[in-house]
Prior knowledge:
Structural class: mainly alpha
Shape: globular
Largest sheet: none
Helix content: 55-70%
Amino acid sequence: xxxxxxxxxxxxKLLDWYIERRPAHTPGLFGEILLIARTRLxxxxxxxxxxxxxxxxxxxxxxxxxxxxxxxxxxxxSARRPINR
Length: 85
């Protein structure tokens, strides 16, 4: 299985920008990210969800409560549970 670090700050800023302007498309975007991570990098959805959560908390312009609420709505159930590293 592959391993990755936090998402680069500039990529998080791009995600943040997209989420603010296309909130209705966020679940589809996250679903696509999860699919690509699973098929190309062999990363399980909980790991990718945890990575998205951690990276957005570090570099997003949104506050933590907003990020958590957004991820609860936008991530599929398989990616919502945090996993131990």
